[in-house]
Amino acid sequence: MIVSPPLHKDGTATVGDALLQTVRFDIIRGQLLPNQRLRLEKMREAYGASVTTLREMLNRLVAEGFVVAEGQRGFEVAAISMAELRELAEMRTMLECHALDRSISLGSLEWEAGVVSAHHMLHSVENGLIGGETSAVETWVQYDWNFHSATVAACDMPALIATHTNIFGRYIRYHLLALDFRGAAVARDHEKLRDLVISRQIDPAVTLLKAHIRAGMDHIIASGKIPA
Could you cite one Gene Ontology molecular function of this protein (predicted)? Predict the structure, then answer.
């Protein structure tokens, strides 16, 4: 999942926020593995940032739940577990269902167009995966985020959306560690959700979303790649 960093008034990302985005995404996509020690000198060479900037960035990732501070030992990538996956799935369900309810109630015609556009791109990638293009799984995860984000984009609660973005990112990390697409069923879910959302059917859309998240969690667990 790629989330744009805050910008200066001239439209450029701050160095610290751009670095935060890069390292967060490297954790989400498994470039930095669970429990991996984050040695500041090696990170300085890899990311081209000062130790001070790296330390500040890592402390922010600690607050977000992607990194763990080990006292005098420094930092390491947060571990994964079945218990956390289940907790994140439950948190995502609560936050996203409420945001979806409000978004459907408040969304404009432009919001509907955004949902349809995001689904069109997701659908194209899903058709490729169903046809055997297994190399596109990481792209699918990105477009899956884009679609679900579009469905809740009209929600008028910024704090809820910010929290949902964090939880979704941590949840997607498990998807990318499993690196598996669950087939035509998920594509059908997305198509149905699109139709329910733009036809403003709140209760059926929320019911489908709950089942969709649960099925995704069960698929990740079935991969056998998540420790107990």
Answer: DNA binding
